[in-house]
Design brief:
The chain is α/β, with parallel strands linked by helices. It has a single domain, classed as 3-Layer(aba) Sandwich (Uracil-DNA Glycosylase, subunit E). It is 35% helix and 15% strand. Helix 5 crosses helix 6.
Amino acid sequence: MTSSIIQPPHDCSLCPRLVEFRDENRNAYPNYFNAPVPSFGHIEAPLLIVGLAPGLKGANQTGRPFTGDYAGDLLYATLFRQGLAEGNYDRRADDGFELRGVRVTNAVRCVPPKNKPAPFEIKTCLSFLESEIAAMPALRVILSLGRIAHNSVVSTLGVKRKDHPFGHGACTKEGDLMLVSSYHCSRYNTNTGVLTPKMFDAVVAKAKTAAGL
């Protein structure tokens, strides 16, 4: 049985540091979204992709996860190539780009200073991720991008990290769910060779197959 999604309000006040940073950005970038970024994709999707947090000039600007920065360029190009998206991705929330069988969210919903959420902020946002997972009736696979996202998923499910260690391409089962982890598709990781487009394509393909897509 599924439950209703609990989303952070537009002016969520749970994390003081993120609230302060949001207020600063509203002054500096009044045309940006500047609020907790909602998930993207259908709730009936069997595959959930969990990232870290909105980028200042990416999702915090556009209001859609992974939209407007390099990480999104790589993620959505890969999903399109895998037949998991349709339309033209144009770094805008209103570009008409749509996901097929996939939903995308972040472990932390508000943009953090220097792209680094604090432990308290990560923990505080777990309730929203838990709600997201519980509300997806056909969910079969969770693909986590980066260690923090992976650990948030594991914490949300109430299982031990030692039973579900992070590693690029690692797959473990938890009940009916398959947990797949990947290095984050950030520009830093691709520039340093930690993650190549080929590696990322392979891990997305693995998650797609496991989800029956």
